[in-house]
Amino acid sequence: AVISHHEKALHLINHLRSLGCYFAIDNFGAGLSSLYHLKKLPIDFIKIDGSLIRNIASDVVDKSMVRTISHIGHMLNFKIVAEWVEDEATLAMLGELGVDYAQGFHISKPDDETRNKPAWELAAFKPNALSNKPSKNGIIATRPRKTAPTKVMRR
Q1: pLDDT, tens digit, for every residue of 48-93?
Q2: Shortest CA distance to 99 belongs to which of 83, 86, 82?
Q3: Phi, psi (degrees; rounded to nearest 5) at 48
Q4: pLDDT digit string (tens) for 4-42?
Q5: Whole-angstrom distance, CA of residue 69 vs CA of residue 112
């Protein structure tokens, strides 16, 4: 909808940003997403599609694509989120590739506490409210919105 109604969407996004909202492109790397659109949209986060994440330990093309998305995203001052993190090897590699946040069953499975809360009550959607106290391996855990918790990758 943002791409096909660009001007209207930009007006709405800018208005909501002025109210303190944050924006993400979800499932980036799947379907018709394009690197070109990144420089045109006033977003805060890129969520890399799990189809690129799940095999990065064994697929050099997926690994290169994640590295590229992360690099370009950081050049544009976006935070990078990886979906479908299912093991420690993937989590470690994402840190090496410059990914800022990770989501997936390796971090935690959804629970009733978070499943039934609106997004505005959860810290994962309030970047300024993130804890500064790292857990083991320097990774900071936050609370999710209706999915598995997110961890911050510390570089």
Answers
A1: 999 999 999 899 999 999 999 999 999 999 999 998 999 989 998 9
A2: 82
A3: -75, 130
A4: 677 888 888 889 889 888 888 887 877 656 777 788 888
A5: 33
Query: Hey, how many other C-beta atoms are within 10 angstroms of the C-beta on 91?
Result: 21
Is residue 13 classed as helix, strand or coil in its secondary structure? helix
pTM assigned to the model? 0.71
Contact 110, 144 (CB under 8 A): yes
State the chain's mean pLDDT as an integer. Answer: 75
3-state secondary structure 26-57: EEECCCCCCHHHHCCCCCCEEEECHHHHCCCC
The token pair that represents 80 in the structure block: 């990078």
Amino acid identity of 79?
A: K
Indicate the SS3 state at residue 120.
helix
Which positions ≥6 away from 152 have C-beta within 8 Å? Answer: 100, 101, 130, 139, 140, 141, 142
